[in-house]
């Protein structure tokens, strides 16, 4: 696991570029390619070596409080968890892979939130497995490393909430529409309920939110979190919506509207 001292050195390195030229380059790159800027931040995180573990003290806690202002993300963000990726394709229908749909919808969601002035980040902006980034969880299970990496990011970056984007599958091909899973926590339930209402309007459905008690991300994440199953790939009508640009935008808009309504209500 990332050690405390190494994390703070990392945040300091991220917040204060080595030269003014580097700072200017980073700013121009972020304006032109916001998704690439987020991805580059992740790469730089991997490049910082761990520092020896130390025992927390009151003095260190004060230093941590001061360094908090040097976060590369000065305000709490909406963390968009893009389901699956890389070797993990998720569910599928022929050559249609869930991981690709998740990324397409998440990118649109990211842009919609940023356009409205909300701070948002993606935990992946291309087709790769997050388990490949995990060098701290000593497990032979790629799936466990993937899940723990997703959870860890929400604790290392100041996060308002987590929205995990996925696609559903059912043996009964008549099942359709979005379904939002939530934590057993009031804020998560409220967020899920608002997003569910927005998705029901897109699909003209009457689906209900569901407690995701078996899901690692919902159980381990300390901030309000939901998993959005954006539709059923097994249903032909949903599949058409999930694989078209217009349909993906409708779904992204519904999720974004739900997030904004939730944040406005607090």
**What is the SS-derived class?**
alpha/beta
DSSP helix fraction: 40-55%
* Overall average residue pLDDT: 76
Strand content: 5-15%
Counted by DSSP, the helix tally is 10
List how many beta strands DSSP finds.
8
How far the N terminus sits from the C terminus, by CA atoms, comes to 33 Å
Q: Main sheet? A: 6 strands, mixed
Element pattern in H and E? HHHHEEEHEHEEHEHEHH
Shape: globular
**Low-pLDDT windows of residues:** 1-58, 63-68, 134-143
Strand order of the largest sheet: 4-1-5-8-6-7
Radius of gyration: 19 Å
How would you portray this structure in words?
It is built from ten helices and eight strands. It is of the alpha/beta class and 266 residues long. The protein is globular. A six-stranded mixed sheet has the order 4-1-5-8-6-7, with helices on both faces. The chain has a two-stranded antiparallel ribbon with strand order 2-3.
Task: Give the helix/strand layout.
Blueprint: H1 4-15, H2 20-32, H3 34-47, H4 58-67, E1 77-82, E2 92-93, E3 96-97, H5 98-115, E4 120-122, H6 142-156, E5 159-168, E6 179-182, H7 186-203, E7 210-211, H8 216-220, E8 225-232, H9 236-243, H10 245-265
Parallel strand pairs: 1-4, 1-5, 5-8, 6-7
Antiparallel strand pairs: 2-3, 6-8
Helix pairs in contact: 2-3, 5-10, 7-10, 9-10
Quick overview:
The protein is of the alpha/beta class and 266 residues long.
Descriptive tags:
266 residues; alpha/beta; six-stranded mixed sheet; two-stranded antiparallel sheet; 10 helices; 8 strands; globular; disordered N terminus
